[in-house]
């Protein structure tokens, strides 16, 4: 792994009126890696990406991208980056190929090179077969891949991806992840914002957690998961009276202390070997004749991360709960 940083931000400040969108935000992204920026709605992810990609002026602090100052050398920075926004920028009426050729011309490639680059990118993002179909007929995953391809026209050193898979079904999400991995294998550094711990875990070698415009943790995905206790086996019973027996079984089979939620009729405990622990718990409960409503594996969510790091849940989930 390289020791140089593709992105560095120190004490970034950005205010919108009274609102502090960024409030002393720090970030360091190693060259040649995928770095996750994980946070709930309104945490400041898009604002950070906009500042780093020179679209928005900062009010305080200092940031470099590819070693260049985002304020004083904004033109040079722009020549070295790609950006895929939270909302797809491709034209519905055009075909995938026409979209890429149009972006190529926007980047002054000239007609012949724009055409050739479109062919390469359709191939790289597995869109060759769909290339001559109108984008209106693309699935969500195909559209995001086309969006990624468009931001790669000039093979940027640093690519900013703002929530590239929000709203996609699991299969499309997997396709986008594959494309991101391929990009990094070809040498691009990626800063990816996401609201999904699972996505950061799958793609990123390091994750910064952002809350209220500030980095509240910076760690490897495993480090983060360890802090919050990792994966858990969860058993739901039909009747409260079954809980003590389930606790006993779970305590015997799982690695850590089980927790019982009497009102939710749930028992859960941390596990390291997910699948074998699940199988063992299911088998033992069946052997002992315990009536079980549901049993499964639960991965830690963004909410679990927040609860552990801040002592409160994300504002978004609290608001949802209050409304319910
Ligand atoms: N142009 C703007 N004018 C006023 N307020 C803004 C503007 N852009 C962002 N904000 C506010 O700054 C805060 C951070 O917003 P930002 O869009 O960076 O969050 P985010 O982490 O990208 O959220 P999401 O997950 O919803 O995209 C929010 O409270 C938002 O309302
Ligand atoms: Mg955003």
Shape verdict: globular
| Largest pleated sheet | 6 strands, mixed
Q: What's the total helix number?
A: 12
Order of helices and strands: EEEHEEHEHHHEHEHEEHEHEEHEHH
Please mark out the parts with pLDDT under 50 across 5 or more consecutive residues, or reply none.
none
Subcellular location: Cell membrane
Family: Belongs to the ABC transporter superfamily. Drug exporter-1 (DrugE1) (TC 3.A.1.105) family.
Membrane topology: Peripheral membrane protein
Pfam family, one: ABC_tran
How would you portray this structure in words?
By secondary structure, the chain is α/β, with parallel strands linked by helices. The protein is built from twelve helices and 14 strands. It is 38% helix and 26% strand. The protein is globular, with a radius of gyration of 23 Å.
């Amino acid at each position: 792994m390289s020791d140089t940083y593709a992105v560095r931000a120190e004490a970034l400040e950005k205010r919108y009126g009274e609102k502090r969108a960024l409030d002393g935000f720090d970030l360091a992204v190693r060259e040649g890696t995928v770095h996750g920026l994980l946070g709930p709605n309104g945490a400041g992810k898009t604002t950070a990406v906009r500042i780093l990609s020179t679209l928005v002026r900062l009010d305080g602090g200092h940031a470099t991208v590819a070693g260049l100052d985002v304020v004083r050398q904004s033109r040079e920075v722009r020549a070295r980056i790609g950006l895929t926004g939270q909302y797809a920028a491709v034209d519905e009426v055009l075909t995938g190929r026409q979209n890429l050729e149009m972006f190529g011309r926007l980047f002054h490639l000239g007609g012949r090179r724009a055409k050739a680059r479109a062919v390469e990118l359709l191939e790289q993002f597995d869109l060759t077969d769909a290339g001559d179909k109108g984008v209106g007929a693309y699935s969500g995953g195909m559209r995001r891949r086309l969006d990624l391809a468009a931001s790669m026209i000039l093979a940027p050193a640093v690519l900013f991806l703002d929530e590239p898979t929000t709203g996609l079904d699991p299969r499309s999400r997997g396709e986008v992840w594959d494309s991101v991995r391929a990009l990094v294998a070809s040498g691009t550094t990626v800063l990816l914002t996401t609201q999904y711990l699972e996505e950061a875990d799958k793609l990123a070698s390091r994750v910064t957690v952002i809350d209220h415009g500030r980095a509240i943790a910076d760690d490897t995905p495993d480090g983060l998961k360890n802090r919050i206790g990792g994966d858990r086996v969860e058993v739901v019973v039909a009747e409260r009276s079954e809980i003590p027996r389930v606790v006993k079984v779970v305590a015997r089979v799982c690695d850590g202390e089980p927790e019982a939620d009497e009102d939710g009729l749930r028992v859960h405990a941390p596990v390291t070997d997910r699948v074998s622990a699940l199988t063992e718990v299911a088998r033992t409960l069946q052997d002992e004749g315990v009536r079980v409503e549901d049993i499964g594996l639960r991965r830690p969510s963004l909410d679990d991360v927040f609860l552990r790091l801040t002592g409160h849940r994300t504002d978004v989930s609290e608001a949802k709960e209050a409304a319910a």
